[in-house]
Amino acid sequence: MRQQDLGFDWPQASSLAGPAPAVEPERVVAPVTYVPGYLNPAQQAALYEEAKGYPLSSPDIRVYGQRYKIPRSQAWFGDDGCDYLFSSHLVKALPWPKYANKLRHKLMRELGLRLNGVLVNCYADGSETVGWHSDDETEIAPHSTIASVSLGATRDFVIRHKQTQQKMSFALAAGDLLLMHWPMQQEWEHALPKRLKVTEPRLNFTFRHLLVDFHAGG
Ligand SMILES: O=C(O)CCC(=O)C(=O)O
Ligand SMILES: [Fe+2]
């Protein structure tokens, strides 16, 4: 049967050809909330001063059988029963310092979160980093939110979707808060890349909700 026999003219293939319609790849919405300037300068100063007395250390990690010091220093504070196994070290929770605890209670009160530990990271300058990872340890309470507060130098915090590799970057400045909601750790990774022009230290506090006594008795 010829086309005309159907009673109307079919477009020819050549007239269908043209520029492909511009279809944007679907963007995934990252489950984060960015709150610039969450801490005022006086609050930042009190916490920064306090942190000068924290017992920060750089534990070893093993990569393919080799030992390396992590390229930053850290301390873990938390409630009793909130020991934390990360980078294959079981770290005992140190008692809460005054201002870190005040900030924890401010976050809990204002955001309706439950938080029982904080990992403090110190990056002495832009050569210190954290590589791609998710905060998906099994002792982190399912569906909980991680609250990250930054002090000192501004650094880029980059997130990357595990499947699509879609990336977003946040220039986290002193006093900024970034909330990572469920399922951020399941679906995305994050990193703090090197920024060699940065010469000042940065501190970051990630407040977490751990399952209490997860590592007890074992
Ligand atoms: O320093 C930061 O902003 C991120 C720290 C981090 O990812 C972590 O402690 O798990
Ligand atoms: Fe992290």
From TrEMBL:
SUPFAM superfamilies to which the protein is assigned, alphabetical: Clavaminate synthase-like (SSF51197)
Residues bound to substrate: 84-86, 136
UniProt GO molecular function: broad specificity oxidative DNA demethylase activity; cytosine C-5 DNA demethylase activity; ferrous iron binding
Keyword tags: Dioxygenase, Oxidoreductase
Gene Ontology BP annotations: DNA alkylation repair
Binding site for 2-oxoglutarate: 121, 123, 133, 190, 202, 206, 208
Coiled-coil parts of chain: none
Pfam family, one: 2OG-FeII_Oxy_2
Domain annotation Fe2OG dioxygenase: ranges: 114-211
Protein name, as recorded: Alpha-ketoglutarate-dependent dioxygenase AlkB
